[in-house]
From TrEMBL:
Keyword Transferase carried by entry: no
Cellular component per GO, a single term: cytoplasm
Name of the molecule in the record: Aldehyde dehydrogenase
Gene Ontology annotations of biological process type: aldehyde metabolic process
Catalytic residues identified in the record: 228, 262
Oxidoreductase keyword on record: yes
PROSITE patterns listed in its UniProt record: ALDEHYDE_DEHYDR_CYS, ALDEHYDE_DEHYDR_GLU
InterPro entries, sorted: Ald_DH/histidinol_DH, Ald_DH_C, Ald_DH_CS_CYS, Ald_DH_CS_GLU, Ald_DH_N, Aldehyde_DH_dom, Aldehyde_DH_NAD(P)
Native organism taxonomy: Bacteria, Pseudomonadati, Pseudomonadota, Alphaproteobacteria, Hyphomicrobiales
Keyword terms of this UniProt record: NAD, Oxidoreductase
Family classification: Belongs to the aldehyde dehydrogenase family.
Matching PANTHER family: ALDEHYDE DEHYDROGENASE, ALDEHYDE DEHYDROGENASE ALDX-RELATED
Biological source species: Bradyrhizobium canariense
């Protein structure tokens, strides 16, 4: 039966932003196929221009990000965003020549004197769906790896940071041809269509819920994906830990960017006997670092009213279910809400039935739970989805190694929080519900490259003896191959 509504001619025409995205994508694909392997000089030039985009507009980016948040601590933007982008570009620039070189691979004895090589090649066109929480760093870090690998890149920024997104689009367009690096708008139709484009690779950073939708859309084109998701990253305090030291480092890790960090400590497991003392120490550290004035410029705002209300509901639900709420400031002060800053909050004695223990918090709220035996803490972590990060505090090496061996997570920092992310020689990525794939440094170059195996046949090799007609020669060759296998 002919369904008139199924005819392309009867479908509503695409909007101008959507048509622009589709046209730009197809033009980029054509260029990537016509010019598939830019050389070292061209890749270095692209990295240099990207650094210029950031360096020439540092203050504008700081102001744009702060405007989107309501207030973003300038020091946090400098350290956690700008400096990390510069570090990624500097590292890629320094090592790119060696990364691009074909890699020697050993050749099995029976095939000598032939040679094997792995030849890195660009995939083609890489799409980046960027988050809002660290918009500069988490947008450009995967783009740096993709450009270093010789790809062309299209970035879809988050609609929650419109000032930043518009500035990035403007500044990139001033330095790059649209067929090299392109930043889209944040219109709804662009966001919905982006993951459905047949990219050669797609990167998404965001929530697990949206990550599933992105993976499903990409799967229809068999597009490989790197998913940088989140989840509930636990902290385990061992009985051997220095509680004061742990409290200070956890308070910092939790309150950086007001807790709006995918690898922020999500909850803490502490020996029961130390539960209350530890919570008080964390509260004291929070007060020391950020004081009680919501106008404090060191403390970042929550991104939106909706997210603020979500945090309020999490705390109210926990209080209603019997948890003790500790805050270093007076939460009833209307200035907190006026600045859209959520008071640092500890939920002492949180239980599994509370909403705060069932979803990623993504804010300055920290549940603290007690455990009796070290095995109980490990079992608690393993009963949930595998987290993006895990943190362990203590001096007992046997206990530490037991946790490392019996838990699986995207990454681990021992006796601190967050800093495994900043190790440029280590991959950064999740596992299971917290993500798939990895990037940073050479790991990003590999993710966005096809490491193509190449076998170089030698004229002295006896492989021709494998060809029919078979006779006595094949028996001799088979005997030799069995001996060598």
């Amino acid at each position: 039966m002919d369904h008139a509504l199924d005819r392309p001619s009867d479908r509503p025409p695409p909007s101008a932003p959507l048509r622009g995205l589709e046209d730009a994508f197809h033009a980029m694909v054509e260029r990537s196929r016509a010019e598939p392997a830019p050389g070292l000089a061209e890749r270095l030039d692209r990295l240099a221009r990207l650094r210029t985009v950031v360096a020439d507009n540092e203050e504008r980016f700081r102001q744009a990000i702060s405007a989107d948040f309501g207030h973003r601590c300038a020091v946090e933007t400098n350290i956690a965003e700008t400096m990390m982008v510069f570090s990624e570009i500097r590292h890629a620039t320094k090592h790119l020549k060696s990364w691009m070189a074909p890699q020697r691979v050993s050749t099995a004895l029976q095939f000598l004197p032939a040679r094997n090589r792995l030849m890195p090649q660009p995939l083609g066109v890489v799409g980046v769906i960027a988050p809002w929480n660290y918009p500069l760093q988490l947008t450009l870090a995967p783009a740096i790896g993709a450009l270093a690998a010789g790809n062309r890149v299209i970035i879809k920024p988050s609609e929650l940071v419109p000032h930043f997104s518009a500035l990035l689009k403007e500044t990139v367009a001033a330095r790059f041809d649209a067929a090299e690096l392109l930043v889209t708008g944040v219109e709804d139709e662009v966001a919905k269509a982006f993951a459905h484009l047949p990219f050669d690779h797609l990167v998404f950073t965001g929530s697990t819920r949206v990550g599933r939708l992105v993976a499903e859309a990409a799967g229809r084109n068999l597009t490989p994906v790197t998913l940088e998701l989140g989840g509930k990253s636990p902290v385990i305090i061992d009985a051997s830990a220095d509680l004061e030291e742990a409290a200070e480092r956890i308070a910092y890790g939790k309150l950086l960017n007001a807790g709006q960090t995918c690898i922020a400590p999500d909850y803490v497991l502490v020996p029961e006997r130390a539960l209350q003392a530890f919570a008080e120490k964390v509260r004291a550290q929070m007060r020391r670092m950020y004081g009680t004035d919501p106008a404090n410029k060191d403390y970042t705002s929550v991104i939106s009213d909706r997210h603020y209300a979500r945090l309020e509901n999490l705390v109210a639900d926990a209080a209603g279910r019997g948890a003790k709420i500790l805050q270093p400031a007076e939460p009833d002060d209307p200035n907190w809400k006026a600045h859209r800053k959520f008071p640092p909050t500890l939920i002492v004695g949180a239980t599994e039935d509370m909403a705060v223990m069932q979803e990623e918090i993504f804010g300055p709220v920290l549940p603290v739970l007690g455990y009796r035996e070290p095995a109980d803490a490990i079992a608690f972590v393993n009963a949930s989805d595998r987290p993006l990060a895990l943190y362990w505090f203590g001096k007992d090496r046997v206990a530490r190694d037991e946790v490392l061996a019996r838990t699986v997570s995207g990454g681990v920092t021992i006796n601190d929080c967050l800093f495994h992310f900043a190790q440029i020689n280590q991959p950064m990525g999740g596992v299971g519900a917290s993500g798939t794939g990895a990037y940073h440094g050479e790991w990003g170059f590999r993710t966005f490259s096809k490491l193509k195996p190449v076998f170089y046949r030698s004229k002295f090799n006896r492989l021709a003896d494998l060809y029919p007609p078979y006779g006595g020669k094949i028996a001799r060759l088979e005997k030799m191959m069995r001996f060598m296998s």
